[in-house]
Specification:
By secondary structure, the protein is α+β, with helices and mostly antiparallel strands. The protein is built from 17 helices and 16 strands. A twelve-stranded mixed beta sheet has the order 3-2-1-4-5-8-6-7-9-10-11-13, sandwiched between helices. The longest helix has 54 residues. The radius of gyration is 38 Å and the shape is elongated.
């Protein structure tokens, strides 16, 4: 087995998720013979087995094969062998390697990636070894039978069939330059296999490192050109699949879906810097296709240009139009063999009926509000809030259960169009409560992003939401604010709030800000101390002057001249005193 290969069994295997299953439903031919190379998730294999006439899974060792055979549906043929190990002509209508080519060894152990790709594509032609150069092919001949009780070697026992004119090939390729991987603060030893490994350890065996290199490798292997998807989302569970050939508007729907996928992939990870700002900068630079977690190449069939997660179990397939996107939302049904989760007690649900048929390009209401708040343009915020309130009251008449998220709401001329989340509330709710929830959510996202606003910092969240509700023409009653807070909390819980500590850049910025604030406070304290010292000195000088003046005053009052002046100021007393003196004489 390749060194460092992760042990994968059952539901922990390979790529999975509703988006990936939706893609496979679109590209797999019906009643086909399918070969899955490497361990694949149980729900994916269950889906494939439900669509295909025969499903074979090729893994690298017998113990792993036995573990997978227990969790895979009945009828799935789990076999052991190396890529290209079949000596006879074996052809498949579809060949899958969703988790890449690193989990099954080549004929000589660890093979260069390009050689493994050649061997993989040859399975669709019925001659696995013919994918190798002539000097590396093994001579034909009978192989010894496997030991008693062992799983049969390779896929040759599946038999030979006539190959399809265009067999379907779906190959995953891990991206060592993914944005989430670059910002991951964990040491290399704590990352998934292939993340953070030294370049020297991967030379010669490494997969292509860019969409152009992957396309060139597929072309060299004789693969019919198809669709190359950038897969954004948690490793092994794509949130968004985006055709790398598309020209993506930095403020458009496709860029938002890709950024959401990156944020989902970064949720719960310690980061060097915030993922949102870096993802937005990548979208502005047109580099989103180079920074996903992995790429997924599809040949022999064509899926939709964009797949993304909506709210709940919704998956939305999108096709570009001249001025927007045509949306096809579908609730992801439970895959065969997959347990149905218990009903959620929360009234929050996702409904395909709440997703519009079309969404225009352009920035969201949330982005407009952030820009206006950052510049301190309160008047513009109030105008936009009034327009939002008027639109929501009219929209609420037609969709009384639909919720509104400002990061999923796009202006379309004088109108507003909701996006792909499709969230609805299962209890009676008024337009004021829906709007209060939208404002609460916007405030939470603004605070999490570290955005500024012109309102006083001592105003609480409820105070701010009350101001914005009033600007939107809705009375900010306490019960409306409380219900809006409850709905916003349900939306936050459905997304899955980040549980990791603050990213390194934010922590360093906070530490630097705290140090600067401490220095400012120290300077202020020093200034106040100096002022108090000067004031104390002034008070001492004043006290000394007062004491000197009082002593001088006592000396003056005790003098004969002072007594004479006082006597002259009183004529009657002076007259009596003179009369007494004259009488005595």
């Amino acid at each position: 087995m390749p060194p460092g290969r992760r042990a994968v069994t059952g539901a922990d295997a390979a790529c999975t998720g509703a988006v990936l299953r939706r893609l496979l439903r679109d590209v797999l031919p019906p009643d086909a013979r399918v070969l899955a190379v490497g361990p694949h998730a149980a729900d994916v294999i269950a889906l494939v087995a439900g669509l295909a006439a025969h499903t074979t899974v090729l893994v690298g060792d017998a113990e792993q094969a036995r573990g997978l055979a227990v969790v895979y549906p009945a009828g799935v043929d789990v076999r052991v062998g190396a890529i290209g190990g079949g000596a006879g002509p074996v052809a498949f209508d579809a060949v899958l390697a969703l988790d890449g080519l690193d989990h099954v060894p080549g004929l000589d152990g660890p093979e260069p990636w390009i050689d493994r790709l050649h061997l993989l594509t040859a399975y669709a032609t019925g001659a696995p070894q013919h994918g190798l150069p002539a000097d590396r092919r093994e001579p034909d001949g009978d192989r010894p039978p496997p030991p008693d009780g062992a799983v049969p070697d390779s896929a040759e026992a599946a038999g030979a069939v006539m190959p399809r004119a265009k067999p379907v090939l779906v190959v995953g390729c891990l991206n060592a330059f993914s944005l989430v991987g670059l910002l991951d603060a964990r040491p290399p030893g704590q990352r998934p296999v292939g993340r953070g490994a030294p370049r020297a350890a991967r030379d010669g065996l490494a997969p292509p490192g860019s969409p152009a290199a992957l396309a060139a490798a597929l072309d060299a292997a004789g693969v019919v050109p198809g669709t190359l998807y950038a897969a954004f989302g948690p490793d092994g569970m794509p949130h968004t699949l985006l055709d790398t050939a598309l020209t993506v508007d930095a403020d458009g729907f496709a860029a938002r879906a890709a950024v959401r996928g990156m944020e989902a992939a970064a949720r719960g990870l310690p980061l060097v810097s915030p993922i949102g700002g870096a993802a937005g900068a990548a979208a502005d630079a047109g580099l989103l296709a180079a920074l996903p977690e992995r790429w997924l190449a599809v040949s022999g069939a064509r899926g939709r240009p964009l797949y993304t997660r909506g709210g709940g179990d919704l998956v939305v397939a999108a096709e570009p139009e001249p001025d927007g996107w045509r949306l096809t939302p579908v609730a992801d049904p439970p895959a065969p063999g997959r347990a149905v989760p218990d009903p959620d007690p929360s009234p929050l649900r996702a409904s395909a009926a709440a997703v519009p048929e079309r969404i225009p390009e352009g920035e969201t209401v949330e982005r407009q509000l952030r820009r206006q708040a950052a510049t301190g343009d309160v008047a513009a915020v109030r105008v936009l809030a009034a327009e939002l309130g008027a639109w929501l009251r009219a929209y609420h008449v037609d969709r009384p259960d639909a919720l509104v998220c400002l990061d999923d709401l796009v202006p379309d001329g004088p109108d507003l169009v909701p996006g792909v989340l499709g969230q609805v509330w299962g209890e009676p709710v008024g337009s004021g409560e829906v709007l209060a929830a939208a404002w609460h959510r916007w405030h939470e996202r603004l605070a999490a992003a570290g955005g500024g606003h012109p309102w006083p910092p001592w105003m609480s969240a409820d105070d701010l939401v009350a101001v914005w509700l009033d600007a939107a023409g809705e009375p900010p009653a306490p019960e409306v604010l409380a219900q809006g807070r409850r709905i916003a909390a349900a939306l936050r819980d459905a997304e899955g709030p980040p549980v990791a500590p603050a990213d390194l850049r934010t922590a360093l910025a906070a530490a630097a800000s705290a140090g600067e604030h401490t220095a400012q406070l120290s300077a202020h304290i020093a200034g106040l101390t100096r002022s108090l010292q000067l004031r104390d000195e002034q008070l001492r000088v004043r006290e000394e002057r007062i004491r000197a003046q009082r002593a001088e005053l006592r000396r003056i009052r005790g003098s004969r001249s002072f007594r004479l002046v006082r006597l002259l100021q009183r004529p009657r007393q002076l007259a009596r005193a003179l009369a007494r003196r004259l009488h005595l004489r």
